[in-house]
Amino acid sequence: MGLRHTIVTTSLGELTVVATAHSICGVYFPSHTPAPHPEALGSLVVPTSPLFMDTAAELNAFIDGKIKSFTIPYEFPKTTDFNLRVWERVAGIPYGKTTTYGLIASELGQPKSARAVGRAVGANPLSIIVPCHRVLGADGKLTGYAGGVERKSYLLQLEAAKSIGEDSLF
Known about the structure:
This protein is α/β, with parallel strands linked by helices. The protein has 2 domains: 4-63; 81-162, Winged helix-like DNA-binding domain superfamily/Winged helix DNA-binding domain (Arc Repressor Mutant, subunit A, Orthogonal Bundle). Helices cover 32% and strands 15% of the residues.
C-alpha cells in the first residue's frame, strides 16, 4: 500500500495526516510552509483505518491539553542524515520544555550550524507529533512555525499551563 492521506479537524484547524501502511509520516497545516509536495501525500482517503482514527484522537487530545505525548507509530521520510539527526533531537524535547536552534546545533557537534538546524526544523514533516514548536530563537523569541507563529504560541502556552512547577530548558 502506498502513501495515503486524510483531513483531521482540530481546534487548531484542519490537519492533513499522511500515512504509510503502518505509520504516520506527515502532519501538515492548511497553510503549511513549506507546503508538502503532492507526491508526498498519496491518495486522499476517508479516515476509517484505526491508524487514522487513533491519530485524529491523539492530535485532538494533545491540542486540547488532555495528553502530553503520542503513542501512534510514526516514521520520518527519506531525508539527509543531518535532517534526521535534527528531527530525532527535536522528537526528544520533553513536553513543556523548550530549546534553541543554536543549542541543538551545539548538541549535534556543529555549533555554527544554527541556521541549518532552523532549515531542518522547518522541514519537519510531523508537526505537533515531533514538537518543532518547542524550538525557539537564541533570544527566546518565536521565530517561525510551519503552521504559523500563532499556532506555535498556542502550543507553547498550552504546554506551559499544563507543566506548572516543572523547569524549562530555556
